[in-house]
UniProtKB/TrEMBL annotation, chain A:
Name used for this protein in its record: 1-aminocyclopropane-1-carboxylate synthase
Highest taxon of source: Eukaryota
Catalytic activity, as annotated: S-adenosyl-L-methionine = 1-aminocyclopropane-1-carboxylate + S-methyl-5'-thioadenosine + H(+)
Family, similarity comment: Belongs to the class-I pyridoxal-phosphate-dependent aminotransferase family.
Any single GO BP term: ethylene biosynthetic process
Enzyme class: lyase
TrEMBL record, chain B:
The keyword DNA repair appears for this protein: no
Molecular-function GO terms, alphabetical: 1-aminocyclopropane-1-carboxylate synthase activity; pyridoxal phosphate binding; transaminase activity
Protein name as it appears in the record: 1-aminocyclopropane-1-carboxylate synthase
Species this chain originates from: Actinidia chinensis var. chinensis (Chinese soft-hair kiwi)
Enzyme class: lyase
Pathway the protein acts in: Alkene biosynthesis; ethylene biosynthesis via S-adenosyl-L-methionine; ethylene from S-adenosyl-L-methionine: step 1/2
Length: 489, 489
């Protein structure tokens, strides 16, 4: 009793999980986000601001969505036409999900794969976005201390999703630019052996296909190699296919769902797919994550766990209607691919003209830009220095390869689907100018301090929560200075 | 390589979490749900079916909600008036949440407490329902093996929410009917000591106020005793206030938020509130869970964790609009309390007339019915036998006290806010008839066989996933036979 000081040691009060770095936000990459956040590009209000090219968002087809929404008022429980369902929808808390939602998602997943495979609506399990799906699968498939093999470069959010609250580990499978980042059997075996020698039990392999950040898809041979590998080792194969509908050029997408129809020896109890509507449809705010497992027990367990992150029935209802409309979905998939292809081409060609190459890719909302020749030396430090230059001088927020655990410095992920056509032109112009300037430029020490000082100041006053998160993580915008917030206020 | 049998031992393939019973669904209480599920009451189609009184849902005020929705089309992103915001809302994935959502929820929480306290919108953190909120706090406040004290009887979902994936434990604080289930300092000290002797580290106390299943509110003295206790022990106090707006009679609700304004010695870093819109507003499908912590670090950590269970922005937008409308919320809170009071009175009076008492209560969507005198003996077994009688003969699905870990057999939770007025009459009639019959009835063995046999049959063929979950858990309806599903097909 008596007066207790509020200066208690939070380290003892809170859990280890709450006080470790497993959330992944204590990274130096926040500088780029801080720069963007404090100086965001706006065509009229801030034409010299930083252009956001670090967010893998798909904003190209909202006109199609909005047209559909307008023509289908019953998809909403708030319109005059749909309001009679409000109560039933608002009180439905069944973790199986609304039947039309599951049917719509299953059908859409099939359509995205050219109807070469069908998906069972009863295997559609909800989760809190793909973020929640990955964590749920980690909880289902692995015990604390167990590991998942993950090919590099990979989406940094996996570090948090797979490991933070679950206690599992990630063992990287190194893919190198020398063979275009192909995922080889040798790399898989090397990683598996490394884990085994370290007495780490490998429970599964997680592949992202189409790849983030590469924008490439896995060919049939590689997929078969993967299935053979995991089946032999009796470990799980988790396929994150959230970019499936962003494939915009040949070769076409091959899903793991198709491979297991061909590789009949394969034990389906080991096969699981993660899906989401955040990339293919452009709905990250709706938090529609899907776990699709061929293992009955995993399906059952994941469904129980979905209680921690179900999709709002208001949204289930809208999505169920939207995705049941075959005419719309077929048109959308085709048109979206077309627009992505055009955007991709504008950038790739524009950069090629100034000698900037990128990994040849046919999918994703980004491309993997090769700036290795601009590095002073092939090190992460040089890459980080170049990145700071790009943020502060070129005024573009792109994502450095090291944030994706890429083994070769000098690669940058550049997102192209989250801006309008005019911004595309400006972004392209800035990159081209920078490259052309750089050819003749010798950056003396005197030229650097300016933004370096600004950086040091910002580091001293850094409050973690004011940071905009790295694009490949959740929730990029700080509420204080995000343009979205500004538009609102 | 070779043909692998699919008869792999899932026990080795999957995690311990996936193969243990932490999800809480392997309980004998599913028999009642099975009975309801296979024979659900419908006024016209199945008038002799089982009436659902095990679901704590609030269906009394949807007319008010629907009227508001019809008059406020801009609250939806699908109406003509609101569609211009569709894209902004759909792509917004900031885990801080839409400002208007946080402001609306903070304001509503204040109004529910008669504006005696205010809530800071910047402390509003989202979660996957209250289910997600409880798990999130357990992850933040405790390490595996640590324990939370929880007064009995308590909502059975806590067994899963606090323990399943987190590895924490629950140590019950026994409250007894002889003191009207009052939470005493002695009971708290006893439980704490018991944990200490068992070398279990207690990290916090979780109270539910208003109480589920009791329907009572904690008085000022008890709240002060609780705060003094947790502060002294330097353990967290988590206050689940999800039934705050269901207080329908005097005495009024006193929130922990008010107590800490009075008990200024208290360390606020230990105080956390769980809230949700599932009970007060009747929106369990929308998955609006809230963690409100007075501890900055917990707020930060919970916000990062909210990535695993954010509220759909489509729903945030609707809720933000709804709860910003003071005229609506004030009217709703008053009208809802009024209707709950009337419902409560109909039941408690109707039962009193046949000599059935219940714990005096002034809150919640249920009452705590006292059937101790109908038990053959004061044991859980006798309570279960009586329960099965009520399900199969009286055709009411109520929840037995043992499912809430009540220390004394014979109490049953009866929900009254999830049905229309006609069903209320029928339910009441059935209970009254049963009680009156029971007075003169000697249930010979022959009469029991009938439903006992059915029960044994259902146990043999039980497939866990076909079960409707216990009402106090998530997702009560099996998709196969739920009336909701039937209505749809």
């Amino acid at each position: 009793m008596g007066f207790i000081s509020s200066n208690r040691n939070n380290e003892q009060l809170l859990s280890k999980i709450a006080t470790n770095d497993g959330h992944g936000e204590n990274s130096s990459y926040f500088e780029g986000w801080k720069a963007y956040d404090s100086d965001p590009y706006h065509s009229t209000q801030n034409p010299n601001g930083v252009i956001q090219m670090g967010l893998a968002e798909n904003e190209l087809c909202f006109d199609l969505i909005q047209e559909w929404v307008q023509n289908n008022p019953k998809a909403s429980i708030c319109t005059a036409e749909g309001a009679n369902e409000f109560k039933e929808i608002a009180i439905s808390q069944d973790y199986h999900g609304l039947p039309e939602f599951r049917q719509g998602v299953a059908k859409f997943m099939g359509k995205v794969r050219g109807d070469r495979v069908t998906f069972d609506p009863d295997r559609i399990v909800m989760s809190g976005g793909a973020t929640g799906a990955h964590e749920t699968l980690a909880f289902c498939l692995a015990d604390p201390g167990d590991a998942f093999l993950v090919p590099t470069p990979y989406y940094p959010g996996f570090d948090r999703d797979l490991r933070w609250r679950t206690g599992t580990q990630i063992v990287p499978v190194v893919c190198e630019s020398s063979n275009n980042f192909k995922l080889t059997k040798e790399a898989l075996e090397a990683a598996f052996q490394k884990a085994t020698e370290a007495k780490i039990r490998v429970k599964g392999l997680l592949i992202t296909n189409p790849s983030n950040p590469l924008g490439t898809i896995l060919d049939r041979d590689t997929l078969k190699t993967l299935v053979r590998f995991t089946n032999d080792k009796n470990i799980h194969l988790v396929c994150d296919e959230i970019y499936a509908a962003t494939v915009f050029n040949q070769p076409g997408f091959i899903s793991i769902a198709e491979i297991i129809e061909e590789e009949l020896y394969c034990n389906r109890d080991l096969i699981h797919i993660v899906y989401s509507l955040s990339k293919d449809l452009g709905f990250p705010g709706f938090r529609v994550g899907i776990v699709y497992s061929y293992n009955d027990q995993v399906t059952s367990c994941a469904r129980k766990m979905s209680s921690f992150g179900l999709v709002s029935t208001q949204t289930q209802h809208l999505i169920g209607s939207l995705l049941s409309d075959d005419i719309f979905t077929e048109k959308f998939i085709a048109e979206s691919a077309d627009r992505l292809a055009k955007r991709h081409e504008i950038f790739i060609k524009g950069l090629a003209q100034v000698g900037i190459g990128s990994l040849k890719s046919n999918a994703g909302l980004f491309f993997w830009m090769d700036l290795r020749r601009l590095l002073k030396e092939p090190t992460i430090e040089a890459e980080t220095a170049l990145w700071r230059l790009i943020i502060h001088e070129v005024k573009l927020n792109v994502s450095p390869g090291s944030s994706f655990h890429c083994s070769d410095p000098g690669w940058f992920r550049v997102c192209f689907a989250n801006m309008d056509d005019d911004t595309v032109k400006i972004a392209l112009r800035r990159i081209r100018n920078f490259v052309l300037q750089r050819k003749g430029l010798d950056q003396g020490p005197a030229k650097r301090p300016c933004w370096q000082n600004k950086l040091q100041v910002s580091l001293s006053f850094r409050r973690l929560d004011d940071f905009v998160m790295a694009p490949h993580r959740m929730s990029p915008h700080s509420p204080i200075s995000s343009p979205l917030v500004r538009a609102r206020n």
